[in-house]
């Protein structure tokens, strides 16, 4: 690690150092990553990402910065990781604005933006304004994504940042998008209030403090009360989802390498962290209900068929999963089917603190609450 840092420091921007020096530093960081604590070391991932960026290996740099952001618990260093990650993702949005992969990159950017704002509130003062000034159009697309996926609290919050950062009147097209978001939020508030879930909020769109404090209630209402958890994604929502891998890698004849059982409230992590790694980086073919279930088929039949067609079943353990009747049914179906096959095919992943269900207490789970061991997970899926 020390050798890697010395090579990294010796190759600071503008000093004329050849790429070979950066490549040597990267070699040391890659070796450090294989040490016992390497995968959990924020500095290794961060320095490695910087080397990869300077070598123009942008996709790998993004993945390395993702690991740093997921691991980092220190506010003082977190900004140094989240800012380049968001900047690179926003830059990808700009480069891919006319291509097929544009919407999934926007969704991935929005996911890490939301993670940053929930992890350290001060990100909004230190990072967001600079990003808005540099990537105004791309940043606005994240607000549109949040509206389409019914995360209206985050959508409004992003627009508030834009209003505070961009001086003068908004262009007509952008102002129209903002008006649609405001109408969606008002409609959602009325529906929730009529359902007796919560009191409607004030319609004063200029009250930033009130909006920020209401994000959680809006997200909860739209995520649970008003949406059917196993309802397929709309065509508009599908455009933002990761594209499915065409061919499975397993040699056992299964149509999918893995099927993911998860709560709808954990969909962002599944789509843009789990699938981004397993499908995007390692080209495994996964299955998630909202993207891959066959339309026109009974939900229960879809669940049964998909489990039988999947080499492994990942169960993403969170409090929300334990509250979902569909997730519980999927879990029981998976256990029943895989017991009949006499294979170790169910892999529980503990994402958030919760009580492990009795049905899988005798199965060793992968603890991802602080850090997900991707190599371990990949090895077990491919086994």
UniProtKB/TrEMBL annotation:
Matching Pfam families: TIR_2
Composition-biased stretches (Basic and acidic residues): 198-210
Region named Disordered: 192-224
One biological process term in Gene Ontology: signal transduction
Domain TIR as annotated: residue spans: 254-381
Entry protein name: Uncharacterized protein LOC109483216
Species annotation: Branchiostoma belcheri
């Amino acid at each position: 690690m020390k050798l890697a840092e010395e090579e990294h420091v010796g190759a600071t921007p503008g000093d004329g150092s050849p790429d070979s020096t950066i490549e040597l530093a990267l070699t040391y960081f890659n070796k450090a990553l294989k040490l016992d604590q390497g995968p959990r070391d924020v500095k290794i991932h961060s320095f490695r990402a910087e080397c990869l960026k300077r070598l123009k290996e942008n996709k790998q740099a993004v993945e390395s910065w993702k690991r740093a952001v997921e691991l980092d618990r220190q506010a003082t260093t977190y900004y140094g990781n989240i800012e380049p990650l968001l900047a690179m993702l926003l830059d990808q949005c700009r480069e891919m604005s006319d291509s097929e992969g544009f919407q999934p990159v926007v969704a991935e950017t929005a996911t890490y933006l939301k993670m940053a704002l929930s992890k350290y509130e001060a990100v909004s003062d230190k990072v967001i304004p600079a990003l808005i000034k540099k990537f105004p159009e791309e940043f606005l697309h994240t607000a549109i994504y949040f509206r389409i996926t019914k995360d209206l609290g985050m959508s409004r919050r992003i627009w508030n940042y834009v209003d505070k950062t961009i001086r003068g009147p908004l262009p007509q097209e952008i102002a129209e998008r903002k008006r649609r978001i405001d109408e969606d939020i008002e409609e959602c508030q009325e529906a929730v209030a009529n359902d007796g879930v919560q009191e409607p909020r004030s319609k004063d769109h200029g009250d930033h403090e009130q909006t920020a404090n209401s994000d959680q209630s809006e997200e909860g209402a739209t995520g649970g009360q008003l949406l059917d958890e196993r309802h397929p994604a709309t065509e508009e929502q599908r455009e933002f989802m990761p594209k499915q891998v065409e061919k499975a890698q397993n040699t056992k004849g299964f149509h999918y390498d893995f099927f993911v059982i998860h709560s709808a409230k954990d969909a962002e992590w599944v789509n843009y962290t789990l699938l981004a790694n397993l499908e995007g980086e390692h080209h495994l073919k996964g299955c998630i209900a909202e993207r891959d279930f066959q339309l026109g088929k009974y939900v229960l039949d879809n669940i049964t068929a998909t489990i039988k067609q999947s080499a492994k079943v990942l169960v993403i353990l969170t409090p929300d999963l334990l509250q979902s009747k569909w997730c519980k049914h999927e879990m029981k179906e998976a256990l029943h089917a895989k017991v009949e096959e006499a294979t170790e095919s169910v892999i529980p992943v503990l994402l958030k603190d919760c009580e492990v269900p009795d049905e899988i207490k005798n199965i060793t789970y992968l603890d991802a609450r602080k850090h997900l061991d991707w190599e371990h997970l990949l090895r077990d899926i491919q086994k």
